Amino acid sequence: MFSNLSLNNCFEIYGGVQGVYRYNYDFSRTISSVHDQYDDVELFYHDIGISAYKDYRGTRKANNNTERSNNPCIVYNLREVPQSLTDTSDINRNNTIQVDLYIKVTSGTFKLYNANLETYYKTTIFGSNMVANAKIIGVKSAAFNSNYSLTLVDEATDKISINLTGDSFIASTLNSIDTTFKYIARFTLIIQGWDGKSLFEYDELGPNLNKYSEEGTNMIHGFECEELTVGAASNLEITSISDNAAAGVGDITNDGVLEINGTNLIHDSVEPGEEWCDLPNKEHYVKFRDINNEWVAPLEGNYLEWTSTKIRVAVPTFGYVDDNLDHTSYALGQYAGTGNIRVCINDALFKCSCYATSKSDDNNNEGELYIPYSAKSMDREMESGYDPETDCNISRFARYSTDLTNNWFYFNISSLSLPAQQAFIRALNTWRCAIDINFGINTEYGIPVSFEPLNNGLDAFTGSTTVNCTSDNYKMFWAIDMKFESNRIWHFDEHTTPPEGHIDFESAALHEIGHAIGLIHTNNEDNVMFDVLKAGTEKRILTADDLVGGNFCQDRSLIDLPSGCGYELIDLVENCNIPLSINETKNVSLIKLFPNPTLVELNINIKSNMYCIEIIGADGKVVKSYKQVRGHTGINVSYLLNGIYFIKITSNKNSYTSKFVKL
Known about the structure:
This protein is mainly beta. The protein folds into five domains: 2-64, no CATH class; 74-230, Immunoglobulin-like (Sandwich); 237-385, no CATH class; 399-557, 3-Layer(aba) Sandwich (Collagenase (Catalytic Domain)); 586-662, Immunoglobulin-like. Helix content is 9%, strand content 35%. The chain has six helices and 42 strands. The strands form ten sheets. The protein has a seven-stranded mixed β-sheet with strand order 1-2-14-3-4-10-6, with no helix packed on it. Strands 5, 7, 8, 9, 11, 12 and 13 form a seven-stranded antiparallel β-sheet that branches. β19 (303-306) and β20 form a beta hairpin. The radius of gyration is 34 Å and the shape is elongated.
């Protein structure tokens, strides 16, 4: 019966590797094939259940069979040949380097039939079409017998395929591979210039064409997935990371510290005496995704602990860019944001050659560190006596200081139109009532708020300055101006959503006041401090993340500053809602208290015909009251105990409260 079957219409129904790709967190790709290849059509009829062929026992061509597999991954490792390049700092030289390729599997032992590594490379280092232009020469390792052939192919102008294939699919003629790296080949590469970074774009791997021959059946199976590591092999692994941590707050609070748990977090090559700050040596570091999804690393002084099983590090808003020692930039968004983290170890040639990236099961956020807020910080470079060659650099939170004249902070909004003033005050009231920040409105002095052409693509910008307090070498900052792009269509009405193409001014002001408080951007889209405010939308309500960040900055703004380092803010004790009319608020600037702090007398200068005064202690009790006071007056406070007091001035049905210090 079988011999009478016509085979004229027998076609190959499956060829090559097909299936579903799944991208793993280490950037490898897993393929699951769901078909078999049949050159024997009668066997195909048998397998799909045609009753006439149920007893057929034909055989497949084993070397053409690829089937779904739960096999482990095949792992490649590219590492430099020691001393193949003596000078890694000169990026303009023409030279050659040599790299060796190794292979292993994550578990078990297999007869390797085909190893196929496809990887992109940097044309800025090698040029293009490496094989065609003779930029690469490969020599097969003696560890693989003469049954194997090594071929190199240009898959694209910036992509190469390295293929090691057995001449036979018979398992007994093939080499075994197991969980120990086996040397495949050595490659000599001609480079045209190099900055010391990794040579290959190994985050992008080609299709899975790696196969082995099954002993006993000689059937060819595909490995489940492939991985590539670059540099000296290591068993570095992350097992868990914190769920969330704020950026830029340092170790002031544990809320700013990331904890990483894992295995082999210190490389075996580390020698005693190589310690650097709290790092095993200068080649170990942690990287964070920034708000642009690029990598940034903390300064060496921000590491709190590093053992073979645990790392504790303050999440950075000022540090290093990726794998080099270039300092990050606030303007470019180069500070930690929500995302995966990576533990890196350099070798002699490659940066971050041995690394582990947080995976989906490493915490409750799919392996991402959630950063609810970010605060401004600065490093030690401005400190007197700091030596970068011997001293650990560290980034510290910058405390808030006023404009060095008083304990309030004022915005001067006199140049804004009335609708803009009212929208700005609403935004300011939102922050004042939420976190009790002592920011006010003034028409005579304070940081100017204005509409101007910015010419930088931004809708708004808040300038600030950061200085070093020489008394304790801690940092302090204050805002110096706030500008909104005049060439935008702004929406000021609080009762309506901005139309398409219009930018909500209250939302933008809420965001910029956050910068004045000390917050910087996050990459959490719901946050007011997210770096983009889309036209036609509004964000007038602070999120929980914004509030936590604002309260942190507010608490830090009340810390006493050393003499000569400006003035800290004082508590907000008045009604947090400023009236929306500037005419109602401008009289605040007409009240002046001096000297403050004071030892004997507190002078009050107010342009009002009649007013009443109450002195209130820190416990909220009225200590002394004065009625029907006129114009300038001096109050004897010598009898008061040293401490903080509040003075409440009531005039024309308006009430103002301020703070003074009795020495």
